[in-house]
Each structure stands twice: as C-alpha cells, then as structure tokens.
Amino acid sequence: MCEFCLEHGEGRKWYLEAKNYGLDLASDINRQQAFQKFTKKMAAASGEDFHTRMEKLENAPFFVKRLARWKTVRNMKKFHYGQIVPIEDVERIFEFVNQIVRTSCLCRKALTGEEKRYCYGVSMGPGNRNLDKVFGELAPGFTGSPDPKGNEVVTKEEALASFRELEKEGLCHSVWTFVSPFIGGMCNCDRPDCFAMQMTVAHGTPVMFRGEYVAETDRDSCDGCRQCMRVCQFGAIGYSAGQKKSRIDPRQCYGCGICRSVCKKNAIHLKDRARVPAAANIW
Ligand code: SF4
Ligand code: SF4
Question: How far are the Cα atoms of 5, 102, 161, 203 from residue 158, in angstroms, in the given order?
C-alpha cells in the first residue's frame, strides 16, 4: 500500500474510495483557486523553461538539490500528486464516477506545443453543474486553446475505449489529485511528453506513486519476442539472450501493465506490489 492508501484509503486503494472524488469542483473555493492557479501556471509553462530548470537543479550542490526536491515532493503531495493505475483500476474508477470530461493535456501542450486529448476530468457531481462548464469557467485560458473541441463530456464506455486505444500506443494511465486527496483527473502519459513522468523517472523528484502492482513474466509462455521491452517506459524489462526470454525487474517496474497489451503469448500478469518483497516498499 502506498502512503495515500494508508492516509486516505484506510488501508485500501485510495483511488478506489468514492469519498476521495469531489462532488463538484466549483463548490469548494480552495480547490477552485488551487486549480485555477495550477492551470494558469501550466498554460504559461514551456518545455524549454522546464529543461533549463531541471538542468540547473541537477547541477546544484547536493544539499540544495536535496532540499529543493524534498520541498517539491511535499508541496505536490498536498496539491497535485498522481499514481500509475492499470486499465482494470481505470475501469473500476469509471464504474463509480458520475461525470467524465475529456480535455487536452496541459503537459503535451507545454512540452510539445501540440494538442492531445489525453486528459480526463472526473467527478462524483450529480450533474446539475456539468464538469465541462466548471472546467471552462475555472480555466478559461486553457479551454480557449486552438483545439476547437474544448472540454467534451464523454460516456464511461467512450472514455474506457479511448484509454484502451492509448494503451495500445504505449501510454500508461494515471490518476491525479487537485488538493489531495480529492481526485479530479486521470491521464494517459508517456515519458517524453509528461512533466510528471520526467520529474519522477528522470530527475529524482517523484510527483507520482508507482502502481499498486508489479508485473511478472511466465517464463514458460514467453517466446522472447521482446515486444514488451519496446513499450516499457521505465526500463524495467531485460532480456536473456541465452534463455531467449524477457525478465522484469520488480525494483524498476511501475506496475502500469502496458507490457501486457503487446504480449501475444499472454505471458505477463500483474501481482500485488505488497506480495513482491523486492518491490513492496518501492513507491
Ligand atoms: S512480449 Fe511476451 S512473449 Fe514477448 S518477450 Fe515479452 S513476455 Fe515474452
Ligand atoms: S514492466 Fe512494469 S513498468 Fe514496464 S510496462 Fe510492464 S508493468 Fe509497466
């Protein structure tokens, strides 16, 4: 169990607890303000600034680097922290949320300049104030993007189908708080175009937990095709040329489950992280 499961999920997966999803973002002034501040900051962000800041941090003296990372992680845990979730848990989340809104991804926009509709707002709101309008009111600069679709209300089936398609392209799913533990968004991430993945994986500043799972291969079924290695964004899969089999390092695995979607031999399954001693305490 990650820290949030213990703090906000009473020992169960925190993101599967309905109480952690807000009724309506617009009804909480603190969340509104925090969300507005965040979208404004993201709308002004650029890939160049991000890389310059990260390079500066990497070259800073050890204690400065350590303090800066600690502060970032602490602040992000309070406001906007994420966790990797496999498709089964995405499906479970969609079973109980009431509203889903597809919107374009702030990270992609800032890092690549492109509009990619990979982000989803989720809410338990009863529907008297549609989430798309709330998003539109709270982040007008963002929704006024060149993408003419703006914020689209989608059904659970449409959202899930889109997550499955994106998984085939190698994107992994994540769930996000907007003022923790209130969960307001879900995304489909890939390392080069995601601030969070870059900070977490490449810059030693985790702003998302690993998934509650770890992948394992069934060595008898594996035929060594190496397709799984191609899609793993965390460098967790190695290959034994002698045995002609792939092998997953549980200490590197983020439990996204994406490798399963390309394995024609069905040789990969997810196991509870807690049951894998080598990975149980790595988040
Ligand atoms: S994709 Fe499946 S069969 Fe191919 S190497 Fe990976 S685990 Fe083995
Ligand atoms: S090995 Fe782990 S991190 Fe890599 S794709 Fe599979 S589940 Fe994700």
Answer: 28, 10, 5, 34
